[in-house]
Design goal:
Layout lengths: L4 H13 L3 E3 L5 E2 L5 E2 L1 E3 L8 H18 L5 E5 L2 H13 L3 E4 L12 E2 L7 E9 L3 H12 L3 E10 L3 H10 L2 E7 H10 L7 H10 L7
Length: about 210
């Protein structure tokens, strides 16, 4: 679910204007998974713009206060969620840790970096959620280390049906500041795309795995 409609519209516009989101309905991108996609999202760009970075931080903090129960620590998902997680933790005066995509290849071979607050409530932060696979791996890693994890915040998500099913099964509530629907709607309103492109973009959203093949 999104935090608020106003926030979803504003973040969508910010992402488009700063080219953190790029739409190419007729010249699709290829994701690492092999999927063809008319959209590419690089939320790391949001960190380069103080106004956008601040807006994201402020709304993350508001969402955490309004939507979630007591939070003892904040965990970022490597790599995109680390910076946003640090900003939230600093604002809330909470400990911060982060979860790697794979255990470190040397030293202590840590998967989780930082002091693990076993038995405490940890809020997970992501920059982008697609199918939910890697995001929920981080949740399971924290739970496996003894943390209580019930909630996740993300800057943007594609709102796939598969993602919804996975988060429901994992009993983890995801709140995003914006999502795919708001981005393509705002893109049409601001003339980043033509009205005829919406049909292509909506078709991809329904069957992303087989679209374009």
């Amino acid at each position: 679910m999104i935090y608020t409609e106003e926030c979803a519209v504003n973040v969508a516009e910010f992402l488009l204007k700063k080219q953190a989101v790029k739409l190419r309905p007729k010249e699709p991108f290829t994701w690492a998974s092999g999927w063809l996609s008319p959209i590419y999202c690089d939320n790391r760009k949001t960190l380069s713009y103080p106004e956008l970075r601040t807006y994201i931080r402020q709304n993350f903090v508001k969402a955490a206060a309004e939507k979630f129960s007591h939070i003892d620590a904040v965990a970022g998902v490597a790599t995109g969620g680390i910076a946003h997680g640090v900003l939230i933790a600093q604002e809330l005066g909470l400990p911060f840790l982060y979860v790697r995509s794979a255990p470190k290849g040397h030293g202590m071979q840590n998967l989780i970096e930082g002091e693990v607050p076993a038995g405490r409530n940890v809020l997970v932060v992501e920059d982008l959620v697609s199918t939910g696979g890697s995001s929920l791996q981080a949740v399971e890693a924290l739970r496996g280390a003894g943390c209580e994890v019930k909630n996740m915040l993300a800057v943007f998500d594609y709102d796939f049906d598969l993602k919804k099913e996975r988060f429901q099964q994992a009993r983890c509530e995801l709140i995003s500041l914006s999502n795919y629907e708001y981005v393509i709607q705002r893109a049409a309103e601001l003339n980043y795309i033509q009205e005829s492109d919406l049909e292509i973009l909506n078709a991809w959203r329904k069957n992303p795995e087989t679209w374009g093949k």
